[in-house]
Design a protein that fits this description.
The protein has about 250 residues and is an alpha/beta fold. It is about 35% helix and about 20% strand. It has 2 domains: about 1-80, Ribosomal protein L30/S12 (60s Ribosomal Protein L30, Chain: A); about 80-245, 3-Layer(aba) Sandwich (Alpha/beta knot), CATH 3.40.1280. It is built from 9 helices and 10 strands. Strand 5 (about 100-105), helix 5 and strand 6 (about 125-130) form a beta-alpha-beta unit. The longest helix has 18 residues, at about 230-245.
Length: about 250
Amino acid sequence: MSDVPHIVAGKNPVLEALLQNRTIEKIYILHGQQDNKTRQIYRLARQQRIPVVTADWRKLHQLAPQMQHQGVVAMLSPISLLSLAALLERLEGISHPHFLVLLDRIQDTHNLGAIIRSAEVLGGKGVILPERESAPITPAVMKTSSGAIFHLPIARVTNLGQAIQYLQEKGYWIYGTVKDAPTSLWQVDFRRPCGIIIGNEARGIRPGLLKRCDTVFTIPQKGKTESLNASVAAGIVFAEFLRQNLMGK
């Protein structure tokens, strides 16, 4: 297990961290800022005995560079990244269909945060990241996930191919998306434990990983744009998983 130090910026992400009882070292709030969410942050911080410091815009920009911090920045203790074995241990006893997300070289932090958010909202049970060629977990990822990162366990693995094999040995069916696959998303059966691979924004899933998939499919498209954004494509697939398992195929 490894730890990633980070900050959380923005009113909603900081509120979510407080509500989830994350270990927060200190909160910085813009001097003179008063609104309902800011007052709620003050109240929860007092209840949890978390120091709150007023700061000017310059200080907040230094703490959260290139982020829309909305006048609120929290310094959090690290998020723990699990091993794959530890992630699966958390899921022992779950008998109903569920899915894990495997990210192959997702390099844009906003895509990573958006995929984590969609996975959590649509019922995912975990995200698996490779150690190399993957966007790091940054404050931008935290903010884009809108707090979902606090609800969804994340595992980091050295080799995604080996992780796929391990999941298959544990009974997971592995799915991947390909632009010209003969099978449509609407024909796929997701009513089982699944590992869903989301590929690189420009190059998709590596051929070696595609060969390990139990099923590959394409997302039907009608427009003239060549392809979907990775996080949008992920949300469509996760929503179809949820539809099948809530309503029946």
